[in-house]
Design a protein that fits this description.
single chain; three-stranded mixed beta sheet; 10 helices; 12 strands; 41% helix; rod-shaped
Length: 345
């Protein structure tokens, strides 16, 4: 059975006189109830509005109308919050830097591991280049340094030539670095000395050059227009004098000789022992095969024949001279080595 409306409320005491007007004034003076927007009403988090008692509502009105008092946080708490935040930021940045450094170290280690062979090859190449550069520097120092320039010239091996004259001829080379001395230029400087057959240069650091001279050996004298020309086996004139030089034979060669007869005569003279050569006064030949010569301070002569077997003929002649040297006038015939004889007369 449905209860009629109004029967579920508690019975109210009878209103006093004047109470209605007082209640009306209070209702008008009370602030309007707070209206919630539609969004707030439908918000799932909105709390349902409940009726408050009148005393509670008054207290609420009093608090809302009173000036708002804000409680300031303590100084320690206010200082701790920014400090804690800055510390956290510094810590984060330090961790980031440490991680970056660790990553770079790892990357460098990987690069070193993968480039080890390349670095070894580069080290070897740089070492080789260093050695080459050092060698080039030493060579450049030896070539261009004035500390290794020529200061002294030593001449050796001369008998007929004057060493001082040779040094004077080589004076233009003084001051030239030893490595830059030109042998052909030195040969040009010594070309005026016809007695020099050959020479050998020895460089003695730091400042000395030694020149070993090989002089031409005179083989005889050629008479030309009353001038005595001292010649070597090659026919080169070593010296010219107006008087006959001592100790060398006169070469009686045919005019227009192309060198064949002179060569044969030179072979014969070079084959003779020194004591026999010193006794030769004049040697004559018209062809290569009819060489003959006379002995000095005697009336003896020698028929040599061709220049072939000259060494054996020289031995035989030395033996015949030992046996017949004091026999007076005569002729030694060694043209045939198997029948060498001495003919008196």
């Amino acid at each position: 059975m449905k209860r009629p409306e109004g029967f579920d409320r508690a019975p109210q005491p009878p209103a006093r006189r004047g109470a209605g007007a007082s209640a009306e004034r209070k209702r008008r003076a009370a602030p309007a109830p707070e209206r919630h927007s539609e969004a707030t009403a439908h918000s799932p988090t909105a709390r349902p509005t409940t009726a408050r008692p009148e005393s509670t509502q008054r207290e609420t009105e009093r608090r809302e109308s009173a000036p708002t008092e804000r409680v300031a946080p303590s100084r320690a708490a206010a200082a701790d919050r920014p400090k804690s935040s800055a510390s956290r930021r510094r810590t984060a940045r330090a961790e980031i830097r440490a991680a970056a450094r660790a990553r770079r170290r790892e990357e460098k280690a990987e690069v070193r591991r993968f480039t080890a062979a390349t670095r070894r090859r580069r080290t070897v190449a740089l070492s080789a280049l260093g050695v080459v550069a050092a060698a080039v520097g030493l060579v450049a120092f030896a070539v261009f340094s004035p500390l290794l320039a020529l200061r002294e010239i030593v001449i050796a091996g001369t008998e007929r030539l004057d060493p001082d004259a040779i040094v004077s001829a080589l004076e233009p080379e003084i001051g030239t670095p030893l490595a830059l001395l030109d042998e052909s230029r030195i040969a040009d400087n010594l070309s005026e000395f016809t007695l020099i057959r050959s020479f050998v240069i020895e460089l003695i650091p730091p400042n000395t050059m030694r020149v070993e001279i090989d002089e031409r050996e005179p083989i005889g004298v050629v008479v030309s227009d009353s001038v005595f020309q001292l010649v070597d086996p090659a026919g080169i004139v070593i010296e010219e004098t107006l008087e006959r030089p001592d100790g060398v034979p006169i070469l009686d060669l045919p005019r227009g000789d192309d060198g064949t007869v002179r060569t044969a005569v030179s072979e014969v003279l070079l084959a003779l022992p020194a004591d026999v050569l010193a006794r030769v006064d004049r040697i004559t030949a018209t062809t290569r095969d009819d060489v003959s010569f006379t002995l000095r301070d005697s009336e003896q002569s020698v028929v040599w024949g061709s220049a072939e077997s000259s060494d054996r003929k020289a031995v035989i002649l030395a033996a015949l001279l030992t046996q017949w040297g004091d026999s007076g006038a005569g002729e030694y015939d060694v043209s045939a080595t198997g029948s060498a004889v001495f003919r008196e007369g």
